[in-house]
């Protein structure tokens, strides 16, 4: 479908002017706009319109967080005698207008996402992969894709293998997963690409070693899979990383980029001069349970000063020359829970 196929976006206005008006409409208004007429619905939900908005600079980068929240309580339930075990949902934070919102629950899991699931972005869509069943704790291969344009989830093709605590990253609409461990807790060195457009998985060459509990970060045209450990070296985190070049599909090993013995999960910020930067090095207030998500030239960083301390939320400028000072932000009620993981999505 081409945008040129549409006729008279706004009655009385030339098509190019009508398209310009709709292109500038903020994304928060799109759910209302698609109800105006069938033509607007088709336009707003099309890949062509998304690409047009992105090309003309009218998309916005948001932080999508896998965040803990309390289970909904029913009147016939007894009051808990202790603390309430959190379930997880998707929170969306807009650093421009400082708004916080929830994404509708995955239909298959209305009371909470799979535990330890991973998320990545793909051309205005959120891809949720794997995790543990929140009731049985069994590792899962499920894939769900949320389209912000339609406001709906769809089920994707399952992962080829069960795996947990793997590295994840995305580039050019495709999602990459590597490492982790299988249902028997055997570490793996395998890697795959998931293409949401084709809804298919394609295998990549294996990494040079098994990497359980590794962390993924995209740097330019590469995926860095940081640290991890092999099956026979449980908890003995490596100081090396494996680097995948998106163009060639080839891996290379880089030694001495991480502190040996330290878990990298959610701590990896970026890679500079062959050294990995850590979010928990920014400030003493985010030493524990830290997580960071880049949103344009800034990052949303969450964490605590010590175990059991209140969870703080901060913005920090990440451009060269900025002092990288954490600025605390207020969070509305219901959005102060622990952030397990997250990604940036452009919508």
Automatic annotation (TrEMBL):
One Pfam family of this chain: F-box
InterPro entries linked: F-box-like_dom_sf (IPR036047), F-box_dom (IPR001810), Kelch-typ_b-propeller (IPR015915), Kelch_1 (IPR006652), KMD1-4 (IPR044595)
Annotated CDD domains: F-box_AtAFR-like
SMART domains: FBOX (SM00256), Kelch (SM00612)
Protein name: F-box domain-containing protein
Residue ranges annotated for the F-box domain, each copy included: 13-53
Gene Ontology process terms (BP): negative regulation of cytokinin-activated signaling pathway; regulation of phenylpropanoid metabolic process
Gene3D superfamilies per record: Kelch-type beta propeller (2.120.10.80)
């Amino acid at each position: 479908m081409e945008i040129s196929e549409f006729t008279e976006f706004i009655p009385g206005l030339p098509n190019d002017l009508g398209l310009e008006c709709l292109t500038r409409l903020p994304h928060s208004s799109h759910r209302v706009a698609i109800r105006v007429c069938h033509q607007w619905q088709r336009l707003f939900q099309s890949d062509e319109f998304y690409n047009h908005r992105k090309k003309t600079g009218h998309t916005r980068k948001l932080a999508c967080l896998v965040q803990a929240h309390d289970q909904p309580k029913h009147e016939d339930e007894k009051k808990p005698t202790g603390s309430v075990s959190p379930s997880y949902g998707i929170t969306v934070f807009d650093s421009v207008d400082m708004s916080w919102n929830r994404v509708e629950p995955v239909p298959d899991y209305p009371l909470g996402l799979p535990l330890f699931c991973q998320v990545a972005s793909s051309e205005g869509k959120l891809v949720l992969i794997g995790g543990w069943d929140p009731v049985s704790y069994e590792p899962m291969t499920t894939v769900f894709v949320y389209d912000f344009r339609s406001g709906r989830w769809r089920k994707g093709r399952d992962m080829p293998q069960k795996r947990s605590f793997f590295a994840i990253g995305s580039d050019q609409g495709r999602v990459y997963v590597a490492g982790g461990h299988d249902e028997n807790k055997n570490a793996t060195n395998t890697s795959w690409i998931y293409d949401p457009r084709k809804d298919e998985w394609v295998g990549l060459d294996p990494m040079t070693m098994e990497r359980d509990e590794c962390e993924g970060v995209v740097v330019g045209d590469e995926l860095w899979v940081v640290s991890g450990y092999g099956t026979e070296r449980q908890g003995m985190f490596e100081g090396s990383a494996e680097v995948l070049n998106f163009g060639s599909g080839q891996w290379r090993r880089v030694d001495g980029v991480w502190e040996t013995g330290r878990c990298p999960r959610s701590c990896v910020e970026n890679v500079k001069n062959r050294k990995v930067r850590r979010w928990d090095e920014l400030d003493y207030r985010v030493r524990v349970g830290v997580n960071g998500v880049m949103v344009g030239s800034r990052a949303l960083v969450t964490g605590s000063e010590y175990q059991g301390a209140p969870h703080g939320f901060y913005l920090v400028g990440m451009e060269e020359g900025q002092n990288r000072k954490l600025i605390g932000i207020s969070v509305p009620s219901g959005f102060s829970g622990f952030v397990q993981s997250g990604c940036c999505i452009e919508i």
